[in-house]
Amino acid sequence: QVQLVESGGGLVQPGGSLTLSCVASGSFLSINAMGWYRQAPGKQRELVAVITSGGTTNYADSVKGRFTISRDSAKNTVYLQMNSLIPEDTAVYYCNAESTTRSWRPFAAWGQGTQVTVSL
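^ that's the sequence the OP posted. Answer follows.
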């Protein structure tokens, strides 16, 4: 099965930038879509951005034009470049991977989460 490890979170001032990374490892046939979700205190987890194995991307309206998702399939890694950060972007960011196991079953993996705080 897939294990995900995120990195790159931290504290940044409004208007600043951060890049999150997520590396997938383990035993699997393939990793299909990969994405980033976030959860702010007292709120539900929400989709931030997703990228398919073919490179098609989709973004939440709140981050369009500011965030960019990309992936390096050879390294099983997905990135989230976050620019023009605002306090409302403060949340725990989770990586997600939709994979196919060696038993040809779908499996959704989640990372442990990385904190992003946007504040003066």
